Amino acid sequence: MTVKTFTVAITGASGAVYGIRITEELLRQGHYVHFLVSEAGWQVFREELLLDTTDREECVRKLFAGYNSEQWVMHELQDFKAPIASGSHHTDGMIVSPCSMGTLSKIANGISGNLIERAADVQLKEKRPLLLVPRETPLHGIHLENLSKAEKNGALIVPAMPGFYHLPETKDDLINFVAGKILDSLGVGHALFTRWGQKK
């Protein structure tokens, strides 16, 4: 298997668990991950996942304790010296999951106020895969315009919309379905859910 390099960013929308599950699967397969969390994303870690984020580095180390620590690196939001801030550093794809409407707005309009937004801008300008995973409902016109603008400029929009044809039995089944669809869009193989026509 060819080892690839990906960026996973978690922003302040509901569903941080999707970004974590994607990262776990990429690490399990031996890939390298640049990992980022926005300020609002840390709040979601506390409120939805009940994680202690007092020491953020320790929090992430515990999340990925079962994987090789040399496979991933966490970057600070204002670290514009990070490799992913430059197009000269090759990555095989970036996933913003979940992608808040605020982060979407910045990406869609080319505004790079932090490393998540800059890394996404690099993906677009270098014509490399950028997957945005919105988790917001309902959507108003500005949201839709920004989604359309991002898509027209090269982003792939993969909404966090779990399917039910695989007959999910647990919350993990629903999480794995969304994570699997995201990995499908990156061309990364997995066995996170039962595909249409397959038997459980």
TrEMBL record:
Top-level class of the enzyme under EC nomenclature: transferase
Catalytic activity: dimethylallyl phosphate + FMNH2 = prenylated FMNH2 + phosphate
The keyword Lipid biosynthesis belongs to this UniProt entry's keyword annotation: no
Residues of the Flavoprotein domain: 5-186
Annotated positions binding FMN: 12-14, 38, 100-103, 135
E.C. number(s) listed in UniProt: 2.5.1.129
One family name in Pfam for this protein: Flavoprotein
Annotated keywords: Flavoprotein, FMN, Prenyltransferase, Transferase
GO MF entries: carboxy-lyase activity; flavin prenyltransferase activity
Binding site for dimethylallyl phosphate: 165, 181
Protein role: Flavin prenyltransferase that catalyzes the synthesis of the prenylated FMN cofactor (prenyl-FMN) for 4-hydroxy-3-polyprenylbenzoic acid decarboxylase UbiD. The prenyltransferase is metal-independent and links a dimethylallyl moiety from dimethylallyl monophosphate (DMAP) to the flavin N5 and C6 atoms of FMN.
Family named by the database record: Belongs to the UbiX/PAD1 family.
Protein name per Swiss-Prot or TrEMBL: Flavin prenyltransferase UbiX
Lineage: Bacteria, Bacillati, Bacillota, Bacilli, Bacillales
Gene name linked to the record: ubiX
